[in-house]
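Morning, I've got a small favour to ask if you have a moment. I owe you a coffee for this, so here goes:
>
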Amino acid sequence: MPEPDETTPKTLPRYAMVTHIFTLCAVVLSKPLYDVLASQPEYFIINRIATGDIYLFVLILSIGIPIAISVFHLIPLKLPLHKQIQSVIVGILLTMFLLQILKHVTILPGFISAVLGLVGGGFSGIHYYRNRQFATGLTCLTPLILIFPILFIFSEGIQRVLHPQESTETLSQHKSPRLAKTPPIVMLVFDEFPLVDLLGATGEIDAKRFPNFAKLANDSGWYSNATTVETRTDRSLPAILTGKYAPENAMPRLEDYPENIFSLLAPYYSLHVKETTTDLNPEKNGEDSMIATDQKSRQIDRVKALLSDMKVVYLHLLMPPAFANSLPSIDEQWGGFENGHTGDAESYKTRKEELETFIDEMKQYPKETFHFLHLIVPHRPHNFLPSGKAYTLDGGYKTGHIKKDKQGRRDELPDVKLPTDRLHQGLLLQIGFVDTMVGKFISTLKEMGIYEESLIVVVADHGISYQSGLAIRTLSTENVGEIGFIPLLIKQPNQMKGFKNRSNVETIDIVPTMVDILAVENEWKFDGRSLIDLNAPARVHKTIIEKPYQAFNFTEKEYRAAKEKALARNIDAFSLNDFRATLFHYGVALNLVGQPKDALNYESIPGTIECATVNDFLNVDLSAPYIQTQLSGSVNMSFEEIPQACVVVCVNGTVQGAARPFEHEGNIQFDLVISDEVFRQGANDVQLLLLRVP
């Protein structure tokens, strides 16, 4: 590295160089993360981050990391060498700063942004070494070391986390509610579950694909026009549990929602509660009232998890989009981003194990128990087959078709229909898994002898949309049919026959309905209405809030048309009018499935198929919780052949799947999932054929 000019001091005091590192860390590292967390304070509530954890995190970010970077100044080296090392560190930090700025220049390719960031950072490091004024400028920014953490701590959202204030509506304002009836209650809240994906071509629940939902509907009231009132789980779930619209600045915790279904039932019921994204249960602040299944981790574990999440968030802020696609997504869950990353062989097990554990625990409770479960299924990542076995470790994103925005959220679907439909199929397969678990709930209640007398509520917080070229979760008039409509089934105690209710229902109607069924005497006020009160005024339109606080209003004509269009898309994409179609087979070549390979009478297309997982079937363990049944890869063939080409999968001499190849980013690819039930223990002969199928 060149020596400084004669007019420039060859060295700075070490304390000044350390101060510069602290200043740059504040600007480059701390402030971006503080801004993200201050805009999403719900993260701390949902992940059970305590007040002390937040202060410890601030100390680590604003003091601990700069100290760790500055530690080389303790090494007894000559001062000029210290400054050379210092200049390299300054260059690296300023490179990171420039990359964050260049990421917002959308016209620049990712590679160019990376090169410009590296060149600019390197030049800045040299300038720091040679130019006293540059270093003086950094010294002038020293107050930022304290200003940024102070602004974060005293920001409105973080203050609401650190110092929760009791809602203006406290339980003490009203008399304790009285319950005339105390039947067993089971409430299941699923996540990211569109109603339309539960339906067949006639608009009824598809008993062939989802038999357990159909059985439950035969004993329940099915509210076929039920919609969410919020598209964010941290707000839609409190609306479900309170019967009220979420206040503007409310956090998903008891202090902000004291009047909720848990506090209503707690004096009369044992509470068996599994809250995933809320903390509304008054008993042990979200822990189970009899079995401490969710005891909070030690502080060090929580802070380590927080730091792990912030590392992923920061990499998304730093890396150009072209490079960020390999990072864990930060929009599919509220935390634990690395735990859900592709290739994590253990992460897929958690949701299934939580479901099965909850079902097993139900048997340990007395009859008068409120069993509540909110679980992040069929929410992404889509790992599960209807059997409950996992078939992929990456949630179906092998070919990377969902685009990420600058914050790392997968929210834009490609314009190509075939890969979009395949991703949508992953959701349908996972709904099949949910259906299997609903069947286990029903069987367990019958085994306990309480099914008939139980009050059962099955609902979802919101849906998700799979339309080519549109957002996957951001609500619009084009995708409200998928995102807005959700399943809602309510089985009243000793209900003998199911019925279908086509009225305008919203999720804020659930608690008022439960209050009526239980004949509760209380003075609580609801925004929703009881669905069994024939005198309750009918709702004129639907309101769905996309984000604080953009409200969409839909007339009856508009919301019914949106639902019908969503169903029509599913009928077309998944061949719902064809009796041969299943969750695994749709679209092309349905007539081939089940045929012997030797009986196929189709012309081969010149070309080759590359699939990295085809050899995984040489040693299949049917007892394992994971079987790789997703086959995807590339096809080397003429682009002109794509419209009539078909990749056909034969397992042990029989056709078990087929899919059209498609063009993606200049390559020809294919992607399909076959059933785990077609394999035998041990070695399986899996062959991929490239045939011309009109």
Notes: DSSP finds 18 helices and 22 strands in the chain. The first strand starts at residue 178 and ends at 179. The radius of gyration is 28 Å. The chain has three domains: 14-162, 177-308+330-573, 597-692.
